[in-house]
């Protein structure tokens, strides 16, 4: 499994986009979460928020139409939707801290069975800094994590307890991986859906944390 | 007072070892001509304060690449691998804060406040390094305000009094950084006479701005330009 697989990245993003409801204010993290924007139904009125100071981020511009001064938090050119606005970064983060985001979709290094999230530091190895992840994870009403099920050594990224420094405690509501959709509810992990071709047994075997099988495990569509 | 200056005039305010705060987010909204002037003037041992470390050849990343920076206070350096290498090698001191808290510390500095009180990071940051306060029975982190010897910002337009308006998402941290410097220099695309900006559209009042310089424009290649 490699998350460099473009088709796989889009399948995960498409499933994540199904969590977005009409009327929501949503922040999409860098990478796969950004791709989810392509799968939001066109008739929905969804406000995409960006930490650098945008409410109402729109689709990617046509090639040659990019504006270097209109980029998302990942530095990629975007457009502004009708009714969108610009603000300074403190206002953008005020929107986050006040709890106005209905949902954020984030990447992760590890998630625990309690919904703890670790996604900003691998001590001694990768120390890129937390950016806005702590605020997003701690303050968004719903936190959806998208990630590969296993790390590059084949180890489960869904842990009984996180081994890496935490971004925020008990913040994750839903985990979407290349193998499954897992809900975090009352500090328990419930296997809701499997990503074809995997079966529930495959997911149980590949997951370090204990999983509860939903009565009607579905396939991701 | 006409605050228009040229790069030779503004660079006389810089000294080795200064703390320099910069506007910009991933290089977007960072002032290219001022960064060039700092490089050319051989200013070194500086402490930078701003959102991130840019990219190796974009924004303030170039100052880090050239080894002029001894310390950076930022929210992440992930887009600048050279900053990461220097951090690991011990030649660059890096201090991280959550992005919105860093911005708010800067805003507090510009607003004449001593600090801010927040619960962001209570579960995840090393609280041994933090001063905690209690409000209504709940614990919070007390974060001191940040100011700088010089603030450098990038704006779309200035009038000669230093009133500023910004361009789309290039506004980002520029309005707060503009307020937090002891001496603030704005690099702008266009300078208009006083009265040339509508008072309702001015984002940064000119009283916060000491000098304005005409930008020569962005002289780096954006990361997205190489990937399309």
From TrEMBL, chain A:
Output the NCBIfam families linked to this UniProt entry: pcaJ_scoB_fam
The name of this protein is Putative succinyl-CoA:3-ketoacid coenzyme A transferase subunit B
Q: Which family does it belong to?
A: Belongs to the 3-oxoacid CoA-transferase subunit B family.
MF terms (GO), sorted A to Z? succinyl-CoA:3-oxo-acid CoA-transferase activity
Natural source organism: Bacillus safensis
Q: What class of enzyme is it?
A: transferase
The catalytic activity of this protein is classed by the Enzyme Commission as 2.8.3.5
Keywords noted in UniProt? Transferase
User: Which InterPro entries did the record assign?
Assistant: 3-oxoacid_CoA-transf_B, CoA_trans_fam_I, NagB/RpiA_transferase-like
TrEMBL record, chain B:
- As recorded in UniProt, its EC number(s) are 2.8.3.8
Alphabetically, the GO molecular function entries are:
acetate CoA-transferase activity
* UniProt keyword terms in alphabetical order: Transferase
What EC class does the entry list? transferase
InterPro entries, per the entry: 3-oxoacid_CoA-transf_A, CoA_trans_fam_I, CoA_transf_BS, NagB/RpiA_transferase-like
Coiled coil start-end: none
Q: Which family does it belong to?
A: Belongs to the 3-oxoacid CoA-transferase subunit A family.
Question: PANTHER family under this entry?
Answer: ACETATE COA-TRANSFERASE SUBUNIT ALPHA, KETOACID-COENZYME A TRANSFERASE
By what name is this protein known? Acetate CoA-transferase subunit alpha
Source species: Bacillus safensis
Classification from the root reads: Bacteria, Bacillati, Bacillota, Bacilli, Bacillales
């Amino acid at each position: 499994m490699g998350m460099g697989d473009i088709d796989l990245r889009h399948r995960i993003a498409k499933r994540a986009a199904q969590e977005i409801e009409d009327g929501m204010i949503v922040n999409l993290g860098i990478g796969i979460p950004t791709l989810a924007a392509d799968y939001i139904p066109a008739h929905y009125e969804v406000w995409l928020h960006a930490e650098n100071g945008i409410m109402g981020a729109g689709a990617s511009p046509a090639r040659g139409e990019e504006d270097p001064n209109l980029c998302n938090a990942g530095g990629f050119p975007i457009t502004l939707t009708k009714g969108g606005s610009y603000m300074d970064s403190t206002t953008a983060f005020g929107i986050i801290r006040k709890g106005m985001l209905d949902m954020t979709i984030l990447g992760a290094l590890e998630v625990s069975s309690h919904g703890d999230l670790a996604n900003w530091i691998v001590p001694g190895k990768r120390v890129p800094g937390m950016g806005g992840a702590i605020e997003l994870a701690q303050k968004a009403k719903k936190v959806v994590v998208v990630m590969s099920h296993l790390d590059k050594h084949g180890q489960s990224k869904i842990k009984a307890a996180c081994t890496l420094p935490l971004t925020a405690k008990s913040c994750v509501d839903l985990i979407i991986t290349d193998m499954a959709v897992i809900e975090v509810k009352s500090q328990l992990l419930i296997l809701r859906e499997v990503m074809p071709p995997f079966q529930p047994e495959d997911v149980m075997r590949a997951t370090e944390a204990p999983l509860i099988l939903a009565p009607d495990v579905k396939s991701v569509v | 007072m006409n605050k228009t200056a040229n790069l030779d005039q503004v660079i006389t305010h810089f000294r080795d070892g200064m703390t320099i705060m910069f506007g910009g987010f991933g290089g977007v909204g960072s002032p290219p001509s001022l960064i060039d002037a700092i490089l050319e003037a051989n200013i070194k041992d500086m402490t930078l304060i701003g959102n991130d470390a840019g990219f190796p050849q974009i924004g303030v990343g170039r100052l880090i690449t050239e080894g002029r920076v001894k310390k950076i206070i930022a929210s992440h350096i992930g887009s600048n691998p050279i900053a990461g290498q220097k951090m690991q090698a011990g030649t660059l001191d890096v201090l991280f804060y959550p992005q919105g808290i860093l911005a708010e510390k800067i805003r507090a500095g510009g607003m004449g406040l001593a600090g801010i009180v927040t619960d962001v990071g209570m579960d995840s940051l090393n609280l041994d390094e933090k001063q905690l306060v209690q409000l209504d029975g709940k614990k919070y982190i007390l974060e001191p305000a940040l100011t700088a010897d010089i603030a450098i910002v990038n704006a779309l337009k200035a009038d000669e009094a230093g009133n500023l308006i910004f361009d789309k998402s290039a506004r980002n941290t520029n309005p707060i950084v503009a307020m937090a410097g002891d001496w603030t220099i704005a690099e702008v695309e266009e300078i208009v006479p006083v009265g040339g900006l509508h008072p309702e559209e001015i984002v940064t009042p000119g009283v916060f701005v000491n000098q304005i310089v005409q930008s020569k424009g962005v002289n780096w290649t954006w990361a997205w330009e190489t990937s399309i």
